């Protein structure tokens, strides 16, 4: 996979778990200053200060951001807290202004990640700058769009990259403002080795309560930091009022989180090594059994070919699915897991047998 620089190598003195905090939107110099002072007073200075300067609003008529003036106020943050700053850019003009004002880290918002044209324009505007870029997941749960936006940045030579997991919109499930779909950030980490993912519980939950729970889950899953919207007077914030927390509440949330030690950072102890060896051994057995199972599947395929039988037989499939799912559930394996496992094994079996038929068919072969 592509090589990129992790957060600790961005040259900004950042470490993981990376804590990013600041308001949804920059509103006034007084607001920015008050947030900084309250952070200091609550003894909760984040590593990176966030502020929305241009706000991509779903519908017109709400506050759409203060614009370039807000970038000038970032000096207030440097003065009081002496920490780097990150803002969202949604087009090439924003990207150019952010660079002009010395923004330390740029992020691409969820509504922009869905649009490869906009992402490409931003990448072109940032070419040659070496600025770190964080890409939020797209609104819809499409891993390729998320990866694609990171790849577009990488392709213009920007190699200081990270991802932000802010959840996915869902027409039906209203428990969250944006449903977390935890398998997405985890899959991103699987397919792009070393890609760090910062969780944004504020936009996932959409309310103040629940931010701690989602943050803890993110840390449990092994995500690499948190971006939490923080405002001195959340109820009167100009955007996302319901989900912002005060600096004091931020400190309480961060104190309550049990930050796990990333396994990569420590030498696994004896017990963990023993357990991992046991898993390695069981996985070997699992693979032997699968190999044996597919050998039998191939013999069945041969038999079907000789007797001119179709590969897929729905009654048999139904019976296999139901009986194995029941057996699995009796062994404390979830129904969802059993179904996914059986679908996957069955799909592979059907493909192998269909290939056998195709390869022996003189018409197709020719
Ligand atoms: C934000 O961070 O304020 C924001 C607009 O987020 P998203 O792109 O995740 O909606
Ligand atoms: Mn917001």
Overview of the structural elements:
With 366 residues, this protein is an alpha/beta fold. Helices cover 50% and strands 10% of the residues. The chain is built from 15 helices and eight strands. It has an eight-stranded parallel beta barrel with strand order 1-2-3-4-5-6-7-8, surrounded by five helices. Strand 5, helix 7 (143-155) and strand 6 form a beta-alpha-beta unit. Helix 6 (116-126) runs parallel beside helix 7 and helix 13 (314-330) packs antiparallel against helix 14 (335-360). The chain is elongated. The mean pLDDT is 94. It is an enzyme of class 5 (isomerase). It comes from Algoriphagus limi. InterPro entries: Aldolase_TIM, Chorismate_II_sf, Class-I_DAHP_synthase, CM_dom_sf, CM_II_prokaryot, DAHP1/KDSA.
Instruction: Describe the main β-sheet briefly.
Output: 8 strands, parallel, barrel
Ligands in the structure?
phosphoenolpyruvate, manganese (II) ion
- Count up the helices: 15
Measured between the Cα atoms of the first and last residue, the distance is: 38 Å
Cα Rg? 25 Å
Report the average pLDDT across residues. 94
Unreliable stretches (pLDDT < 50, length at least 5) are none
Along the chain, the helix and strand elements come as: EHEHHEHEHHEHEHEHHEHHHHH
Kindly state the percentage of residues in helix: 40-55%
- DSSP E strands, number: 8
Shape: elongated
| Lateral strand order in the biggest sheet | 1-2-3-4-5-6-7-8
Strand content: 5-15%
Q: Strand pairing plus helix content: what structural class?
A: alpha/beta
